[in-house]
Write a structure and sequence with these properties.
about 170 residues, alpha/beta, Rossmann fold, about 45% helix, binds nicotinamide-adenine-dinucleotide
């Protein structure tokens, strides 16, 4: 059986990692969809799809998860929510089960007949993309919220300086 997890992963954090580990305790393979792949270089979506692919693949390798057990697939958003599941089906291997805590994602897959599970949240107050990005901006300890390899990717791409510069740009446009 193959499951599907969709998320923006801006950035990939320890909550995402725990969900993937839990899915792989139950299912043979997981498809990890990097959602909103067209977005990058904004405060809410600072990282490109390619950078997010690096984060996920390096974090899974760091945690000893074999590459034969997952697929990482970037998917762009589309205008029509009612066609989104078909868009996902076109771009991913076949899957039987969907994992998401996002109400819109849950609704769209349920309407098309998929079984949808809401994964339990781990430390959601801190294991959230919003909190990681907030700490990146404020000089807080974001590193403790993500796998070590994600810290390395963010450093390699000079991600902290990017997000701080974007904040200056967005403030100047208000
Ligand atoms: P996200 O990265 O915030 O979260 C992804 C999933 O990870 C969550 O649903 C949740 O199950 C899990 N998660 C996150 N933090 C966790 C924690 N601390 N503990 C346990 N689990 C945790 O991403 P998201 O916002 O849900 O991503 C949905 C994507 O689908 C977006 O890119 C959105 O644009 C896309 N989408 C697109 C369309 C369209 O194009 N028409 C329609 C619907 C959704």
């Amino acid at each position: 059986m193959r499951g599907l997890l969709v998320g923006r992963m801006q950035p990939f954090h320890l909550g995402h990692l725990q969900v993937i580990k839990n899915i792989l305790n139950i299912l043979e393979e997981v498809i990890i969809v990097i959602g909103s792949s067209q977005l990058s270089h904004s405060i809410k979506d600072p990282f490109t799809a390619g950078e997010r692919v690096m984060m996920v693949s390096k974090a899974l390798a760091e945690n000893g998860i074999r590459a034969s057990r997952y697929y990482i697939i970037p998917v762009q958003d589309i205008e029509c929510n009612s066609l989104w599941v078909a868009h996902m089906e076109m771009l991913t291997p076949p899957f039987e089960h969907v994992y998401s805590g996002n109400p819109l994602v849950q609704r769209l897959f349920t309407e098309k007949g998929y079984e949808v599970t809401e994964p339990p949240l781990f430390n959601r107050e801190v294991y959230s993309g919003t909190e990681v990005r907030r700490r990146m901006l404020d000089g807080g300890k974001w590193e403790e919220l993500v796998p070590e390899s994600v810290v390395e990717v963010v450093n390699e791409i000079d991600g902290i300086s990017r997000i701080k510069q974007l904040a200056r740009k967005e403030v100047s446009e208000i």
